Each structure stands twice: as structure tokens, then as C-alpha cells.
Amino acid sequence: MITGGNSGIGKATALEIAKRGGTVHLVCRNKERAEAAKEEIVKESNKEEIFVHILDMSRPKMILEFADKFQQENNKLDVLINNAGCMINQRELTADGLESNFATNTLGTYILTTALMPLLKKNEAARVITVSSGGMLVQKLNISDLQFKTGQFDGTMAYAQNKRQQVIMTEQWAKMHKEIHFSSMHPGWADTPAVRTSMPDFYEKMKNRLRTEGQGADTVVWLAISNVQSQHPSGLFFQGMAEQKVQLSLSEIVKEVAEQQDRQTVEAQDNNNLLRYLQAQLSKQEKEKQVVLKELRTIEKQIYQAEDESENEGQLCTDLESQIWSLIASNSKLKFIIQEEEEKYVKLLSGYDKYRKKILAHKEFIGQLESKNPIMMQLEEKMLMMQKLKAKKKELVADLQNPEGNIIKQVQGEITDLKAKLSEIKEAINEKSVLLIKEQERHAQLRKEIEVQNKRCEAILKRLYCQLNKVQSNKRHWTWDMQQMEKTAAHLRRCLGNAV
């Protein structure tokens, strides 16, 4: 248990004990400051068992009530550290009519310690440490005016008298309670809130030589947890983890102050050397930090560039995939168009075959017509007849050369008849020739029409072959483009995977 544990040496002591695993009860007057100190101690020590108790050490009745309640709620107390204190420079009275310095420093410490004696005696190695001050060396015990009712009031001297009273109480407790080890101590002149507010002139003159709060707490922590300390007799006064006299002459006081100043000077020089070394190390680390930060910025820039490239490649891959899907859709559409064109081509080929068959049939029909035409047959008959007539003419010429006259007459009569028949035949031949010419013209026109139709069919076939070749060429080109795009997409996926 540490009284006044929310600031100064009390808080530094609580932190050091908590770091070593101790359970700490902070007895403080101000709740907000106590909770803030608890939070700081828990954070720095990683020790959760830090408890806060709110108590005004200048109120005797409240102290007795707190001690009674604490003993009911707890069955053990190893160490009591009486650290709470005050130095008020004007004489003030508490609500109970007591002088404030005496009520807090002497009476409050006495009541709390004696009230907790039963709980402390349950522990064989219990300790009570009272944080006094070297200022008590300038005061002798004065029990005739404990509350400074007579004479001119001096807060500093009142504080020194209270601290002398604490040392005397420690000595008396050690004689009365052998089961408990009692110690009082002087933390050295430390830079604490109490010194800054209560002794401003002293603080301004000595602030560069004052000890830190942690340094001021070293002796009280040693008294609280050290096994070596328990080997010293109970009731002693300590400073710098060593026993000190409680009565000093003025020369001894001056000598002690001089030695303390020398020690502080040496410590200051050591601290300055350490500070210069730390500053050099800090400068070196700052340079290394700048180099590391520069490298870090370069790496971050590279990371951002890689992320941008990755995003671009991802977008490109997405675009390529969309193009591939578009090409696949176009390919499917082209396949459908090719199938339709092939179907149309097959239909055209079948139509062309039908048309060619019709033309061949028409040619056969024309040939048959030409072979079966009656005019031609009649012409052939007439030709045969002409050949017969020529033969008869030759016979007649031979008969005419014969001197028999009857035959000539008969022949002449027959010739006359034949001439008449021949005229009829010529007329008929002329008529048939006209009809034949017309028929030939009609046949020639039919041949021309057949040739035109053949040319049209050939042109249609050529056009179809060209379209088919073009479709097949486009199909091969699209297939090659799709293969190239698939290769590009695969390469981009690999690059994207490597970038990620």
C-alpha cells in the first residue's frame, strides 16, 4: 500500500514495484489523478492488479474507517509505504480543527499505520517504510507545540518538524512491534510536484541538480523488496540505500550537502557525456532512418508502379477477354452464316444441276425434233426424186439420140408433164426452204439462248466459288486471329500472375 501514489516519488515507487510483479494499492485524495496514474502504471508495467482507494490523510475518522474496511476486504498486507505528505506555507486548519501539515504528515501517518498493524502482523516479513526528508536534520523534536500555535509560522520548518516526528515514530514503532520491520528514509532532493509548488525559490536555484522522481524512489523500492534490507535492524533511517545518522551537526550537514552536490556534479557530467553519446547515436540513426525512408519511398513508388501496371494489365486482360468473347460470338455468327451460305450453295448447285439437266433434255429434244422434222424428210424424198429424175434425164438424152421419133414425142410429153410437176415441186421446195430457214433461225435463237443461259450458270458458279473461297479464307483468318489473341491473353495472365 502506497499513500500519495498518484504523483511524484509515490507514483514512481508504485510503477517500479508493479513492474516487479507486486500488487499495489494506491491511497490518494484526488480520484481523477489517481485513476490517471493507475492507467499509466498498468500500461507501462502490464500489471492489472493496481487498485485505487480515495482517502484524505488529514481526516482521522476517515482514516480509521478506511483501515477497518480494508482489513475486512483483504487478508494480507506485505508492505505499507507512508509517502503522502504536504508542505503548506501558511497555517491552515482542517475541518477537524487540526493544523494541516501536522494532520497529514504526522497524525495521518500515525493513525493509518497503527490501524493497519493487525493486518501487517499476519505476515511474518511485513515492512513499514515512511518517506521522510533530510530537512528534518535541521529540527529537533518539539512536542510542546505540535500544531505550531505559538510564534511565527514557517511552512518549511513545520514540514521539517513533521519529518523529524516521522523518524521518531519509526524508531518507537520498531521498539514496540518486533514482528514488523520499520524504516524511514530520505529520497534525496528530487524534482517532484511537491518541491516545485511548495519550495519555488529552492526549486529555481537547484532544479538542474535535483534528482528525478525515479532516482528519488530507488531507496524506498529497495527498502520495500530487497532481502538485504531486512538484515538491517528495524527503525533505522536510510538515504541512498545506506543507513544515515538522524542527528547531524551543522558542519556535517554542510559536508553532506557538499558531497551530494559533488555526486550530482559527477552524475551531471556522466549524464552530459551519455547525452552527447546518445545525440551522436541519434544523429547516426537519423541518417540511417533517412536512407531507409528514401529506400522505402523508392520501394513504395515501385509498388505503386507495379500496382498501376497490374491494374493496366488486368484492364487489358479484361478488354482482351471481352474482345475474345466478342470474336467467339462473331465466329459463332460467321459459322452460322457460313452454314447458311453452304446451304444456299448446295441449293444453287442442286438448282444448277436441275437446270443443266433441263438444258441437256432440251438439246436432246431439239435433236429429236431436227431428226423427226417432216420438212427434212420431204427434202430428202425430193432429193431422192431429183436423183431419179437426173437418172431418167440421162436415159432420155440417150433415147433422144436414138432416131426413133415416137419415143421423143412421148418423152417430150413426159418432159412437159415433168416440168409442170417440177414447177410445183420447186414452189413446194421454195415454201419448205422458207419454213426451213425460219426453223433454222428459231434453232439459232434457241442455241443463243442456251449459250446465254450456260454463261449465266457459269458466272453464277464462279461467283459462288469466289464467295465460298472468300468465306473459307475469312474463316481461316479469323481462326488465326483467335489463336493469336488466345496466346496474347495467356501471356498477359502469366504476367498478371507474376506481378501479383
Automatic annotation (TrEMBL):
It comes from the Eukaryota. Keywords: Coiled coil. It comes from Callorhinchus milii. The keyword Transmembrane does not apply. It holds the Pfam family adh_short. The keyword Phosphoprotein does not apply. Gene3D superfamilies: NAD(P)-binding Rossmann-like Domain. Residues 275-309, 338-463 form a coiled coil. This is Dehydrogenase/reductase SDR family member 12.
